[in-house]
Write a structure and sequence with these properties.
Number of strands: 2
Number of domains: 1
Strand order of the largest sheet: 1-2
Order of helices and strands: HHHHHHHEEHHH
Largest sheet: 2 strands, antiparallel
């Protein structure tokens, strides 16, 4: 079957917004709006550049993962799917390196104010309530308690830095926490690079390959439930933070 030279638009589905379900989804409406803005780039000639920028930013500070935009671009131009996957992987690894340098050089002056402004202080740095404060760490003028993500990430780095980066890059576990924390604790940049290539490469190239080889079979499903799937990416991101804090 011949493909069109023009990108095909993935039409968003109509999700219910009223009643109890609408109330439960209310916190995600801003993220859905942000997703819609991100996905709008898939229909422009700057789609590849937008994918690169989003993938780079998500690895160091931006909350929206690049997967939905990658999927939209792949379905729009299936013959270029593997190229889009490579762009996404490369930009994500470079963004991870940028996050590492932010953690090492700009943690106190840039990262900490942003984390505080976003309301992430308790989850990223932990709190002294109910923990052994004698085990706390100090970095960049901040105290890190054992019930915070940074403390847990430090333990994972001590166990196996490569595996820690690989797991964060592959799964919904918050990758940016690992990249920034790696710089804070001066973990090997080589471990970050190779762990991220393996993890992000497996994740992004799998999405691209799925679109390339099975696009005709799964595209109707994606088109019908695309908005729900983007909400699912939001939920996976939140679940990743929970898993990082309670399961690592």
């Amino acid at each position: 079957m011949a493909e069109s030279e023009q990108p095909e638009r993935i039409a968003p589905s109509s999700a219910p917004v009223g009643g109890l379900l609408g109330l439960l989804l209310w916190p995600f409406r801003f993220l859905k709006t942000l997703y819609a803005w991100v996905l709008s780039w898939a229909e422009s000639k700057y789609g590849t550049a937008a994918l690169f920028c989003l993938s780079f930013a998500e690895a160091s500070f931006f909350p929206i993962p690049p997967d939905p935009l990658l999927l939209a671009l792949c379905f729009g131009k299936r013959r270029k799917s593997l190229w889009f996957g490579l762009v996404c992987t490369t930009a994500s690894v470079l963004g991870g390196i940028a996050g590492w340098y932010i953690g090492r050089e700009l943690f106190e002056s840039v990262a900490v104010p942003v984390i505080e402004r976003m309301g992430w202080t308790a989850s990223w740095f932990g709190t002294p309530e109910g923990v052994d404060t004698s085990r706390s760490l100090h970095a960049g003028g901040v105290t890190l308690y054992e019930n915070g993500l940074f403390f847990l990430v430090k333990q994972k780095f001590d166990d196996n830095a490569f595996w820690a980066y690989f797991t964060a890059a592959l799964t919904p576990v918050p990758y940016k926490v690992f990249t920034i924390a790696g710089g804070v604790f001066e973990v090997s940049l080589t471990s970050l690079i190779f762990g991220s290539i393996a993890g992000r490469g497996s994740r992004m190239m799998s999405v691209a390959a799925m679109a390339y080889f099975f696009g005709d079979r799964i595209k109707p499903f994606i088109e019908k439930y695309f908005e729900w799937l983007t909400v699912g990416f939001c939920l996976l991101g939140i679940a990743g933070f929970v898993a990082a804090k309670y399961m690592m």
